[in-house]
Amino acid sequence: MNPLIHYHVDAELALIGLARPPVNALGQPLRAALLEACEQAQADPAVRAIVLYGANGLFSAGADISEFGTQASCAAPDLPGLLQRLTSMDKPLVAALGKLALGGGLELALACGYRIGEPGTRVGLPEINLGLLPGAGGTQRLPRLIGARQALDLILAGTPVNSETALRLGILDRVAKHADALLDEACAFARELLGDRAAARPDVPYPDPAGGLPDDFFEHFLEANAPRWKSRLAPRLVLDALQAACRWPLTEGLAHEQVLFKQAEDSRQSAALRHVFFAEREAAKVPWIEADLPLRPICKVAVIGAGTMGGGIAMNFANAGIPVILLERQQDALDRGIAQINRNYANSVKRGKLAPEQLEQRTTLISGTLDYADLRDVDLVIEAVFEKLEIKQEVFRTLDEVCKPGAILATNTSSLDVDRIAAVTSRPHDVIGLHFFSPANVMRLLEVVNGRQTAADVLATTLKLGRTIGKLPVVSGVCFGFIGNRMLEPYAREAHRLVLEGASPAQVDNVLTGLDLNMGVLSMLDLAGIDVNFLVRDANRTAINHDDSYCRLGDELYALGRYGQKTGRGFYLYDDRERQEDYEVIALAERLAGELHIPRRPIDAQEIHDRCLFMLINEGIQLLDEGIALRASDIDLVWINGYGFPAHLGGPMHYAEQLGLDKVLRGIEHYRQTLGAYGEMWFQPAPLLARLVAAGKTRIERF
Ligand code: 3HC
Ligand code: NAI
To answer: Is 18 left (phi over 0), alpha (psi -120 to 50) or beta?
Structure first.
């Protein structure tokens, strides 16, 4: 028998085990082997029922994502055809779902007549996260099993449920007592079915999946959700498929699902989201770190500074069950910090996101102190005090004195030189940057800033720990602003300059939100604070190499006390967060343009798009060339998870590849020629971009 399948006949039962580690992805070789095994069981008169299981304990994570967009994706036997064949067999099939049954894995189970899970098995259809819809019968068989409304919610959420919920929903027939008993209980289930002379497939509970839904349900659903979905294609295709399940017989519904699936698979959005899937897995890999490098144990953490960031950072560790101690200079600051954490947890309880007993567990894991002596036994310290080099250096001198040997000393600085902070200690190899994003307990991105002397095991330990606390860690080298904020500079520069040249702030932002970015850059500055932006700029004027035209507008807004949302005025006027254009800002831009001799003119959306995006992309490519980012896909993850770049565009680097690198280069050269001295100064193509285009490359890579 094929090595991808374990096949064994045991007293009238054929036990068929999927054996394609790590996750039994249903690529063509496994599909072929599975079909062969099922045909053998079907043909064997000694076999009366079939049990399908995961030979390594885990059932299946679905279709092989790396096949999408290639011939292999539909190579025979294709998944829908294979599952269709299983549904036509006249022997009962029982699927024993160990650990997870996702996407095509769950669809395989739905093609079986009966399903049993083990406690905690994750069951779901996460295709939507890849810009797809379930394409092997999921959109047709699930609604007939649990009703259209429940199926729609599950498919659109894309989040798996555990086996207990799956049982309640009717996706599972049974849950085994424990994982070790799963296969035995599945076999016992199959024998009961034989004893009862049960049909190979029971009748579906919802032959009319739409039962009880109003006639105009789908139209209203689309109308209500379209603003949230923005330009995403996959949710709309899901809705279309579910509508087919409600209106047409199974065979027609399955055929329609396949047409929709092909449309999704061929879409740029799905290609982008698949890129993001693999990018997230790549980000965990650092070329110079061996997989078996021993990590440092992290059992207790300290955070210095209980302000906006420190409190959020501490919550991450408490949420993951790791004790954390907060250190402040003064009791009142400590009390304020801890009170804020308690308020955050209380809000989560109020919103039903946290059980009251979890609140108790978490708050008891957080303690406070004013005394560095209490940090003697911690394994990791994260400093989150004011953004001033001298203050941070002072903190690190003290940490060097009090912390035990081997403790990791991290800084949450957003712009300072990690190497200069490390240099004041006697152990720069133990120092690293851990740049959380605000709100630190919510945002998924964690830039892990690898200093010049940071030890490999310190980097590896923090990368692993980042994932343990639910973050997406991305490695960055040391430079001003690391990956994210450094790219923000030229992107924001163009937005400022376009306003001086004649665009209104809303015009600039609307082009960016029109691309599905969460926020335009000027609205983002208003949210983060014009003052914060000014102070970082002011402290780094030499490092950032500003020219007047870029800074003046932001500097003047700062001087006017227009700090953004918090003062009700910034680039916009705010009335309870509702933003309005402010003619004072336009007048200010006109005055400054006059003083700076910048001609004002009408500016179109294409120019706004190209100037903001091409400068963002150019800086990313430059970062890659400098080795600040390890790979282009890491840059994409930073912008998707830290700056609201839409995942369905794949991040700025993937977006550039989709646009065409030659087009990006031509655009930059165009503005270099047409924007006078400003263009000459700023529109300099990254040498790597020019090299890639000259070599005819279409992917961004170091070269
Ligand atoms: N196809 C191909 N490779 C997959 C895969 C899949 N469906 N699922 C996981 N892998 C690979 C990962 O790329 C990774 O490879 P690497 O070691 O070379 O980097 C390896 O398996 C382990 O994956 P993770 O590092 O993610 O391991 P975790 O234990 O953290 O997570 C998981 C496991 C929950 C299964 C997670 O990988 C996951 O969510 N996978 C995707 C599940 C999914 O989206 N399924 C639907 C696929 S589309 C589909 O089925 C279409 C159908 O309707 C026709
Ligand atoms: P904050 O002003 O809210 O908090 C700083 C806290 O540090 C205050 O509570 C202060 O009392 C305390 N503190 C100052 N000096 C101290 C010392 N010597 N010892 C102990 N405690 C001390 O500042 P915030 O916003 O939390 O920023 C902290 C750090 O995080 C800065 O380096 C900042 O650049 C960085 N950061 C901030 C982000 C943000 O959006 N606020 C995002 C990412 C990083």
So the answer is: beta
Ligand 1 site residues, Cβ closer than 6 angstroms: 22-23, 25, 61-66, 79, 100, 102-104, 107, 126-127, 130, 132, 134-136, 138, 281
- Which of these, 700, 652, 633, 29, lies nearest to 277 by C-alpha position? 633
Is 494 designated active site?
Answer: no
Tell me, in angstroms, the distance from the centre of ligand 1 to residue 665's CA: 35
- The answer to whether the bond into 77 is cis (omega within 30° of 0) is yes
pLDDT of residue 65: 98
* DSSP string covering 268-287: HHHHHHHHHHHHHHHTT--T
- Give 496-510 pLDDT, tens digit per residue: 999 999 999 999 999
127 given a catalytic annotation:
yes
Nearest to 306 by CA among 341, 346, 345, 334: 334
**Residue 293 tokens, joined:** 């490098």
What per-residue confidence (pLDDT) applies to 553? 93
Q: Is 35 in contact with 111 (CB distance < 8 Å)?
A: no
Count CA atoms closer than 13 A to 431's CA, side-chain side.
27
The helix/strand/coil state of 237 is helix
Best probe residue, ligand 2, of 308, 393, 396 (max atoms within 8 Å of C-beta): 308
CA 414–ligand 2 middle distance (angstroms): 10
Mean pLDDT of the chain: 96
Band (pLDDT 50/70/90 cuts) for residue 544 is low
Interacting residues of 443 by C-beta distance below 8 A, sequence separation 6+: 436, 437, 641, 642
User: Of the listed 118, 127, 447, 494, which one is catalytic?
Assistant: 127
Nearest ligand to the CA of 309 is 2
pLDDT greater than 80 at residue 539: no
Structure tokens at 335: 């009390």
The Cα 683–Cα 695 span in angstroms is 21
Of all atoms in ligand 1, which is nearest to the CA of residue 129? 44
What's the whole-model pTM score? 0.96
Predicted pLDDT at 536: 81
Whole-angstrom Cα distance, residue 485 to residue 441?
A: 19
Write down all domains in the chain, each with its CATH number in brackets.
5-265 (3.90.226.10), 301-476 (3.40.50.720), 484-694 (1.10.1040.50)
Which runs of E-coded beta strand occur in 264-387? Answer: 301-304, 324-327, 366-369, 380-383
Dist. CA 266–CA 491, nearest whole Å? 31
Beta bridge mates, 569: 564, 573
651 vs 209: CA distance, rounded Å: 38
Pocket of ligand 2 (CB under 6 A): 304-310, 327-329, 333, 384-387, 391, 395, 412-414, 436-438
Residue-level pLDDT at 430: 98
What are the CB-based long-range contacts (under 8 Å, 24+) for 31-35? Answer: 31/77, 31/78, 31/79, 31/82, 32/2, 32/76, 32/77, 33/1, 33/2, 33/4, 33/5, 34/4, 34/5, 34/82, 35/77, 35/82, 35/85
Report how far ligand 1's centroid is from the alpha carbon of 105 (Å).
Answer: 11
SS3 9: strand
The Cα 515–Cα 528 span in angstroms is: 21
CA 666 to chain centroid: 31
Q: Is the pLDDT of residue 549 over 90?
A: no
Separation of CA 322 and ligand 2 centre (Å): 22
Ligand number with the minimum distance to the CA of 261: 1
Q: Rounded distance, CA 76 to CA 261, Å?
A: 17
